[in-house]
Amino acid sequence: MLKLIRDAIFSLVTEEGGQDTFEYMLIIGGVTVAVIAAIVIGAPSLLSKVETGVCKAIKTLPKMSGITC
Questions:
Q1: Is residue 39 helix, strand or coil?
Q2: Is the pTM higher than 0.85?
Q3: 38 in Cβ contact with 44 (< 8 Å)
Q4: 43-57 in b/e burial notation, b at 16+ Cβ within 10 A?
């Protein structure tokens, strides 16, 4: 099993199409890490802004004006 994985990685690195695929995987991995970090770091302020916006929108509805947020 380990030999199959090693051979697959070796073929990705040595072949031209495999190199492109490997580079794309690295880019996608970096973007994924950046998005997750942005969500984790910015989540508290983002969630409070969403909550404030939803409460303001609910209060503008005629039948929902009695709801408190």
A1: helix
A2: no
A3: no
A4: eeeeeeeeeeeeeee
Instruction: Give the span between the Cα atoms of 35 and 26, in whole angstroms.
Output: 14
Distance CA(22)–CA(39), nearest Å, equals: 26
Contacts of 7 (CB under 8 A, 6+ apart): none
pLDDT in tens, 35-66: 888 777 877 677 778 788 888 887 777 765 56
Taking alpha carbons only, the member of 39, 42, 19 closest to residue 31 is: 39
DSSP class of residue 44? H
Tokens (6 digits) for 63: 């039948």
Q: Amino acid identity, residue 40?
A: V
Alpha-carbon distance 11 to 7, whole Å? 6
31: its two tokens: 């973007």
Cβ–Cβ < 8 Å for 69, 58: yes
